[in-house]
Amino acid sequence: MPHCILEYSVNVVDEPDFRALFGELHQALVATGEFNLGDIKSRAIARGDFLIAEGHPDRSFVALEIRILEGRSDAVKSRISSDAAGILRRHLPRTLAETRCSLSVQVTDVHRASYHKEISGR
Prior knowledge:
Blueprint: E1 3-9, H1 18-31, E2 41-47, E3 59-69, H2 74-91, H3 93-98, E4 100-110
Parallel strand pairs: 1-2, 3-4
Antiparallel strand pairs: 1-3
Helix pairs in contact: 1-2
């Protein structure tokens, strides 16, 4: 934890280097003092089946959900979402300039008591 899930529409204009984007995101999360680098996991998922508003082809979306274990303050969550949005903006300049892009970041609390994690020995 954290788990960072980035979903984006296939009409995003940029071809972001997700490894670099996630590297920046991981560093921003570590900089809060709340997380260890070795615990952060990120993934990107392109969505080809989507409809935004009336369906005009110039509408795109980028939605980042950052799942963290409950217990962090609203100030920490606000910093995380603000920093993450800035990272997304830096990696998607053409998309933001050339499409009507809905860019969102949501920090979601995960219920600590119900979360289970295992790491294999290999």
